[in-house]
Amino acid sequence: MIRTMLRMRARAGCDSAVESAWRTAAARIGRLAGNLGRDMLRDAGDPRSFVVVTEWADESARHGYENGPIAASFADAVRTLCEAPAGQTYRVMRDLDGKGARICVDVAVTVPMSRRAEFERGYAEVGARMATVPGHVREELLREPATDTYHIIAEWESEAAFYSWVADPAHAEQAEPIAPFLREFQRRVFHLGADRRPDGTTDVLVVGAGPTGLTTAIELARRGIACQVVEKLAEPPVNADKAIGVHCRTMEIWEDQGIARDAMDAGIWLTGQAVFVNGAQTHHMSWELPDLPYGHLGLPQYETERILADRLATLGLSPRRGVELISFSQDDDGVRATLATSDGGTETVRAKYLVGCDGAHSKVRDGLGLTFSGGLGQFPQLFMLGDVDVDWDMPDGHLLRFIHETDGRMDNMLVCVPLRGEARYRIATLAPPRFFAQTGGTEAPPGFSEELAEPTLEDIQAALDQLAPPGTRASNLRWSSVFRIRHGIVNRYRDRRVFVAGDAAHLHPPAGGQGMNTGIQDAYNLAWKLALAVRGIAAPELLDSYETERRPQGEEIVGRAVRMAFTDELDRDDLKRQFLQEMSMLVSYSASTLVGESVSILDGPRPGERAPDVGGLRRRGVGHALRLHDLTRGTRHTLLLYADGSTDATTVIAAEKLYAEVRELAADEVDVYLLISPDADLPPTLTPPTLRDAGGEFRATYGVTGAALYLIRPDGHVGFRSRPIDADGLRNNLRLVFGGAR
């Protein structure tokens, strides 16, 4: 069984006309084959908002209605009666199938008319309490018109999270304000995932199922955006043939996506780095810095892709493997792509947007005619990689670089990265001369070579004999390959409705795992903007900000990675800052037109910078301290209003008005919290939710006094800040993002 839910908001005075149009349509829908139910619900908090619910026996019945005359007639009837869509307007749900995807729980409860006000007050308290429950995403209260039936519609990250909450005795306390009404209720549970449409259309087509493409799809699916992911490789990789290092900033992204623990369980912490030049140690640095939220994780890329693919599956979506992009074209309304399918045929997909995450040999990049700024550089050397066990006396968990110089110029190098397992390392060094001869005097193609023979254990040992400490022995060669490095960055990241990300946009040496981490962060920046555009609530210039924010990062990283490949770049005074830069913790979009401030705050993160986590936040009814990232985690913007003991009552009261206005201006895509200092009085209102900065960590880290605000974007960067609270400045900033919202 398939359920659909379509939200619409009537214009003032048009409520009755919308209901009348629905009654006419519902009578016709009930006569359609495969229709199991139809209803119109009303938002309990906004009487002008309606949710049309239909239920169908199968996909064929649903699409027959949606593409037929009854749906078209109803859409025409309400088009002038309703406001332009704001927020997520359409959701598709299916019966549970055990795959663990995001779920929607519908709890129907009967409330006598005389007790409605009591029930709705109690529900508001329950909603505030549920905001901190692990795995709970959001919920809304709807009511069947002219009846005593309410529906609590709640989204959860997974079945496991929901049933874990049900089994926890504490859930009774969280639901206590409406417990008298729950003695009898009906509960239905559905999968809520990205909609894969059989008519060959989707919202976003993602080409490539590497870390960049999977991240793009996860972020879109988390927001309910229908997408397809196609990958020409029939099977996922099983060898450690690409990136290993997972940066601290990427780990924060994975925490937001709910996979940080999976990554830590599968990886190994890289605890430091040592550099040797002609056998003598020149640098050593510990990477275990106490103020970092995460360390540097060693995780082979095939494990990264497995973890990301598993997360995507929980959202109801899997890559279509063995499917290759052949060509595409675009117009004002979307993109038409021709795909070669795994059975040897072809098919056409129509999408609103296309994202090319298809790597170094990107067909999307070629199809757009993108060029590399300054040309595409190429290292003259061939390199080899090997996965081996190494017997030596070196510190555990350290990335080791051995360099050989002649007359001050580097002529050979060896990089050894720890892998999970005792004494196991990834070795990277120059390939022996015979591999050049195998190319027949022609240039080897960039990337990993399938034409050349695989390096042997003896080849690895020869490199260790020349560069590693005497007596070092390699054994148990599991995998090896030869590769050539090209480097460059494309002249633009966007062409109308088509984007490139990851290696499709920038190529550079694999020093420090920069390519994979940068690609993941490209996707994390793009996807939330793309979701708003698909839903029709993005400002016209929002998608342009992807290139203006991410391309400068790509330029900086390409240049740095090229320098690191053949130079000892660690010869700097501030090694800590260099490491933070490598870990992407210093990425800033300060030059972006999307970010701004009013009345500069001297300390704290600046507009465009990453919003750091803090602890020690206390919320009434919660027995443990919360982190700031507990509030900012998820798919929406977060507005943090701050007040200390010097803030007058009028300012605090105004926060409630601003709370409601901001949510309407941003199509309900902003979560708002009031943070108060230990010396401030707790306001009586529950809107916005209030937390106490009990330890003063937020005040110290964010440099706030009196009254102030910070707007945090879904990608964890500061969008706007002000001290004192500048409501007009905030409104203007939100319009830069939500220009299409009402």
From TrEMBL:
| Tree of life domain | Bacteria
Which InterPro entries does the entry link to?
Answer: ABM_dom, Dimeric_a/b-barrel, FAD-bd, FAD/NAD-bd_sf, RIFMO-like
Q: Does the keyword Cell inner membrane apply?
A: no
Q: Which Pfam families does this chain map to?
A: ABM (PF03992), FAD_binding_3 (PF01494), Rng_hyd_C (PF21274)
Q: Which organism was this protein described from?
A: Kutzneria kofuensis
Keywords for this protein: FAD, Flavoprotein, Monooxygenase, Oxidoreductase
Ranges for domain ABM: 2-93, 103-190
Q: What is the lineage of its organism?
A: Bacteria, Bacillati, Actinomycetota, Actinomycetes, Pseudonocardiales
As recorded in UniProt, coiled-coil segments are none
Q: Which PANTHER family match?
A: BINDING MONOOXYGENASE, PUTATIVE (JCVI)-RELATED, TRK SYSTEM POTASSIUM UPTAKE PROTEIN
The terms under GO molecular function for this entry are:
FAD binding; oxidoreductase activity, acting on paired donors, with incorporation or reduction of molecular oxygen, NAD(P)H as one donor, and incorporation of one atom of oxygen
Flavoprotein as a keyword? yes
Q: According to its UniProt record, which cofactors does this protein need?
A: FAD
Under which name does UniProt file this protein? 2-polyprenyl-6-methoxyphenol hydroxylase-like FAD-dependent oxidoreductase/heme-degrading monooxygenase HmoA
